[in-house]
Amino acid sequence: MAVLVIVAIVVEVFFSLLLIDRPHPLLVLLLAISAGMVREPRDGAFVAFGGGFLLDVFGGPPLGRQTLPLVVATLTVFLARTELARRTVLAPVLAAVVGTLLYWIVLVIVESAAGLAVPWGHIVLRWVLPTLVLNALLVLPLIALVERLSVRSGPRRTARR
After folding, report:
1. Does residue 51 carry a pLDDT above 90?
2. pTM higher than 0.85, yes or no?
3. Closest-CA residue to 59 (of 107, 127, 121)
4. CATH number at residue 118
């Protein structure tokens, strides 16, 4: 799992550099959601925190700009889980959409608190909506990959109630 987190961070940093001012999937968020759904919510929180911290280190100030939105979005998605949501194939897609929305809301709050200008209309149209679509499309293949890696790395753990 650690290797997958590092790969997600490298790819996300690469996307940020290559696709300047263009939306890209939030791979660390999707990986955190996938890890929490396949393994335990705690695993998803660790991925969100560790991945967010590394993105903050590589992305520059303000520190916490990535960590806080990733952790808040991931934990909120897991707090909202229900038994029905665990059994339906659309649960990961819904989790990705809700997680992405929460990520952007918290990110905008963090940037506003840091004194950065936040053009809401531009962010919603240029970043949030395209990222929602990309994340919704990528979450199911990523969950399948995490499940496959989890089977190889040991027995699957089920979330406690």
Report:
1. no
2. no
3. 107
4. 1.10.1760
